[in-house]
């Protein structure tokens, strides 16, 4: 997971585009735009993170940094 890649995705794509990209990756279809990542797994991780962050920003009227912190808390909790 690379924070600059997630930030780039959040700043340049809509939630709708990201959901479509997620579906395409899961169905092993090409994505209509470039997602940063070394492989499909990392790209999917970046998409999941960006979707969470965009939803959190909208639901809680927060900025990117606050939403990113919430996402990283969830990741840390899931691996500990």
Q: Mind explaining what this structure looks like?
A:
The protein has helices at residues 3-12, 15-26, 40-60, 64-79. It is globular, with a radius of gyration of 12 Å. It has one domain. The mean pLDDT is 95. The chain has four helices and no strands. By secondary structure, it is mainly alpha-helical.
Q: Care to give the gist of this entry?
A:
This protein is an all-alpha fold and 80 residues long. The protein contains 4 helices and no strands.
Portion of residues within helices? over 70%
State the distance separating the first and last CA atoms.
17 Å
Shape: globular
Spatial extent as radius of gyration:
12 Å
Number of DSSP-assigned strands: 0
Number of domains: 1
Portion of residues in beta strands equals under 5%
Any low-confidence stretches, pLDDT <50, length ≥5? none
Instruction: Please write the string of helix (H) and strand (E) elements.
Output: HHHH
Class derived from helix and strand content = mainly alpha
Biggest sheet character? none
Q: How many helices?
A: 4
What are the salient characteristics of this protein?
single chain, 80 residues, mainly alpha, 4 helices, 0% strand
List the helices and strands and how they pair.
Elements: H1 3-12, H2 15-26, H3 40-60, H4 64-79
Helix pairs in contact: 1-3, 2-3, 3-4
């Amino acid at each position: 997971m690379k924070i600059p890649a997630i930030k780039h995705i959040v700043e340049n794509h809509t939630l709708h585009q990201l959901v479509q990209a997620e579906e395409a990756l899961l169905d092993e279809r090409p994505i209509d735009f470039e997602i940063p990542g070394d492989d499909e797994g990392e790209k999917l991780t970046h998409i999941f993170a960006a979707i969470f962050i965009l939803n959190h920003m909208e639901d809680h009227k927060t900025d990117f940094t606050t939403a990113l912190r919430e996402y990283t808390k969830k990741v840390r909790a899931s691996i500990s």
